[in-house]
């Protein structure tokens, strides 16, 4: 019996070597003292340490910089302009940098250069503020609010921006007012229809004109054509406009530049050019 008891004890000791023992990273672990007494030692759960490590990384990470768009781009305008270009509204890129037609894919500045408006000088969106002095060109927008696409603007919002455009034309009196984008011109045509019943000509030179007289008398305008601003319309220069490629837009820029530089003579009218 004694031998059997001894054999059983040795077998249990042998199995004890391979018995599972929780480590210190679990909810509890057994620790055996030198006296053979078992005591319990609590430790934090493994997942809690991982959680704390993540929190430390977040706490040490730099605060992200959030870019906010300005409410609108400043008007690039002055007196005695040959052309005052009218954009629909600033895109997100233009609003971020504070310059007109600033997206790298926009065709406005390439068309401006290639059509002869800059006399061969290479410019980009950062030069927009210098356009009135250097080339007698200005830029404004129908709507000041920036959006990802002009499609995000309501018809009402577009029409509400037209009176401000007309007011600027009457004050600064440019020779031509050129809408970049048909929806901007369409809004102008609806608002201005009470002053003139002439219909839109699509893109290019329009029959509508803005007289500089305070009474907005269309009859007076026809007698003194030089005292009015002529209207021109070009497809949007955004590269998103797939049905009008850059060459199509360039054609209208060239036509406008030809009109601007055309030496007026007796018998010249907007209808007969």
Please give a structural write-up.
The protein has two domains: 16-60, no CATH class; 83-261, 3-Layer(aba) Sandwich (Uracil-DNA Glycosylase, subunit E), CATH 3.40.470.10. The longest helix has 18 residues, at 155-172. It has helices at residues 2-16, 46-60, 92-97, 108-114, 131-135, 155-172, 182-192, 218-223, 246-261; strands at residues 28-32, 38-42, 83-87, 137-141, 176-180, 204-211, 228-234. The protein contains nine helices and seven strands, in the order H-E-E-H-E-H-H-H-E-H-E-H-E-H-E-H. It is elongated and about 125 Å long. By secondary structure, it is of the alpha/beta class. 36% of the residues lie in helices and 15% in strands. The strands form two sheets. The protein has a five-stranded mixed beta sheet with strand order 4-3-5-7-6. A two-stranded antiparallel sheet has the order 1-2. Residues 24-36, 47-71, 215-223 and 263-273 have low confidence and may be disordered.
CATH superfamily of the largest domain: Uracil-DNA glycosylase-like domain
CATH topology tier name of the largest domain? Uracil-DNA Glycosylase, subunit E
Question: How much β-strand is present in the residues?
Answer: 5-15%
**Count of helical regions:** 9
Q: What sequence of helices (H) and strands (E) makes up the elements?
A: HEEHEHHHEHEHEHEH
Gyration radius over CA: 37 Å
| Silhouette | elongated
Give the N-to-C terminal Cα separation. 128 Å
Structural class: alpha/beta
CATH architecture of the largest domain: 3-Layer(aba) Sandwich
Largest beta sheet: strand ordering: 4-3-5-7-6
By CATH reckoning, the class of the largest domain would read: Alpha Beta
Mean pLDDT: 76
Number of strands: 7
Structural domain tally: 2
Give the helix level as a range of percent: 25-40%
Protein name: 3889_t:CDS:1
